[in-house]
Amino acid sequence: MALDTDTIGCYGYYSDFSRSFRCGPGRPTDRQKMLYRMAYDQVQHNIGIVRPGMAFREVAEKAWRIPERFIEQRYTSVMHGVGMHGETPFIAHAVDYGTYGREGHLAPGMVVSVESYIGERGGAEGVKLEDEIIIKETGSELLSRFPYEDALLRGGQ
């Protein structure tokens, strides 16, 4: 089960983070763990590359490379803005930059959601994860605090 908040909260402030959960009895399969780990790695990598002043195009170029079998089902952005206006700026993947890319730079005070969807076309399962960060003078700070699923992060690569 996946939950993507996309919520309008206090004072009209837009917030957005996602988590996927495994429901039901038994233990996660190796495939479920692999999908979850890939989505987690994508989010963590993309948070790690963020620097104030970074061009949106540079974000796209340095973003985690989605394995070919998952490209078709990728989430539409590497990251997008949140705050008083949802989804702006929209930072496209490198493969989509010619179509959806916009010019601009990350600036201190901007809040963005960094997201991933890992799943194959026609596949029975996929994982959606997303964290919200604020761009700071020296990097970024995590704003979303909901934990990841430990049972899905262990092993299964």
What's the helix and strand layout?
Layout: E1 2-4, E2 7-8, E3 14-15, E4 18-20, H1 30-49, H2 56-62, H3 68-71, E5 77-82, E6 90-92, H4 97-100, E7 111-119, E8 126-136, E9 139-142, H5 150-153
Antiparallel strand pairs: 1-4, 2-3, 5-6, 5-7, 7-8, 8-9
How is this structure best described in words?
The protein is α+β, with helices and mostly antiparallel strands and 157 residues long. It has a single domain (2-20, 28-145), classed as Creatinase/methionine aminopeptidase superfamily (Creatine Amidinohydrolase, Alpha-Beta Complex), CATH 3.90.230.10. Helices cover 25% and strands 27% of the residues. It has helices spanning 30-49, 56-62, 68-71, 97-100, 150-153, and strands spanning 2-4, 7-8, 14-15, 18-20, 77-82, 90-92, 111-119, 126-136, 139-142. The strands form three sheets. A five-stranded antiparallel β-sheet has the order 6-5-7-8-9. Strand 7 (111-119) and strand 8 form a beta hairpin. It starts with a strand and ends with a helix.
In short:
The protein is of the alpha+beta class. Helix content is 25%, strand content 27%.
List keywords for this structure.
globular, alpha+beta, 5-stranded antiparallel sheet, Creatine Amidinohydrolase, 27% strand, 157 residues
